[in-house]
Structures are given as C-alpha cells and as structure tokens.
Amino acid sequence: MWEQLLTEILRSHRGKFFGVLGGLIFALLVILIGFLQTVFIACCVFIGYIIGKRIDESENLREVMERIFKER
C-alpha cells in the first residue's frame, strides 16, 4: 500500500515532493549545525551539481574550470 502511494505521489507531484524533502533537510541542517554552515554546504552542493551537469553534457572539465575561474 505504501509503495503504491509513494509511486503515485512521485508520479503526480514530483516537484512538490522533492521541494518539501529539500526544505526538511535544509531545516534539519540549520538546527543541527547552524545557518552559515548549512548555506556553505548548499553552495558546495550547487557548485558540484553545475560541474557534474557540464561533465554529463560532454564538456571538458578543464574548459569548465577555466570558464568558472577565468582571469578578469
């Protein structure tokens, strides 16, 4: 029964489900380790996601890093 319910929720309300789950995890991290540390972790996860996405799109890691950290 629970498996059917979870499957239906994920199929119909995927964005809401993961939004609530992300909010819950963020809140727990703020309570456990503090706001600034949680924001730092969130930034690192976001940067890792962007780099991973670029690698999945068959971009060269060196090109990605040069574009991110290019000299201004």
The end-to-end distance, rounded to whole angstroms, is 57 Å
Global Rg: 17 Å
Q: What is the residue-averaged pLDDT?
A: 85
Please bin the fraction of helical residues.
over 70%
* H-E order: HHHH
Number of helices: 4
Task: Describe the protein.
- By secondary structure, this protein is an all-alpha fold.
- The protein folds into 2 domains: 1-29, no CATH class; 34-72.
- Helices cover 85% and strands 0% of the residues.
- Helix 2 (14-33) crosses helix 3 (35-56).
- The relative contact order is 0.06.
- The mean pLDDT is 85.
Brief descriptors of the model:
72 residues, 2 domains, flat
Brief synopsis:
This protein is mostly helical and about 70 residues long. It has helices spanning about 1-10, 15-35, 35-55, 60-70. Helix 2 (about 15-35) packs across helix 3 (about 35-55).
